[in-house]
Amino acid sequence: MGLAYKVCDECGELVEEVGRDRPRFYIHGYEQILPALEHKLSGLHVGEKFCVTLKPGEAFGRYEERLCQRVPRWRFPSDVSLVVGARLELGIDDHGLGIDYGTVLFCIKEVGADEVVVDGNHPLAGRELTYRGEIVEVRVASYRELEAMGPQTLPHGLRL
């Protein structure tokens, strides 16, 4: 499915715009876009317009203060450039974040002499988002497109 759309937050601020000349394509039913948005787009046809408002819980989640942390500067490797707005993937060893394992993408919010403020929330967390747009293409996904998503998406028994 191909979409052209604008996304605005609850204050009307433009968050993203995707034009008809370069639509955003996704394979419907595989959660390649926000599941709540995908659900609302089900059954629409080429040329149909849509306006879908998603609450934070349907979009990128509530903003969680616990994911905004002050970290001693010495905990960052010396070769890491600490610049406000930079994004870093950091390993989690459960420093009160309630996350037991893995990595989280953090955004640097402040850089001080002794500490760095990092935020593990998605940049759009806590925001209500409205998608206004149009369906510009609907077609069956190709075998190659499905294969690129992994073997679980291929019809049973098919292999390249």
From TrEMBL:
Keywords carried by this UniProt record: Chaperone, Cytoplasm, Isomerase, Rotamase
Family: Belongs to the FKBP-type PPIase family.
CC terms in the record's Gene Ontology section: cytoplasm
Source organism of this protein record: Lujinxingia litoralis
GO aspect biological process, one term: protein refolding
InterPro entries xref list: PPIase_dom_sf (IPR046357), PPIase_FKBP_dom (IPR001179), SlpA/SlyD-like_ins_sf (IPR048261)
Role description: Also involved in hydrogenase metallocenter assembly, probably by participating in the nickel insertion step. This function in hydrogenase biosynthesis requires chaperone activity and the presence of the metal-binding domain, but not PPIase activity.
Gene3D superfamilies (alphabetical): 2.40.10.330, 3.10.50.40
Protein name: peptidylprolyl isomerase
KW Ubl conjugation (keyword) present: no
Catalytically driven reaction(s): [protein]-peptidylproline (omega=180) = [protein]-peptidylproline (omega=0)
Location within or outside the cell: Cytoplasm
Annotated EC: 5.2.1.8
PROSITE patterns for this protein: FKBP_PPIASE (PS50059)
GO molecular function terms listed in the Swiss-Prot or TrEMBL record: peptidyl-prolyl cis-trans isomerase activity
Residue ranges constituting the PPIase FKBP-type domain according to the UniProt record: 1-88
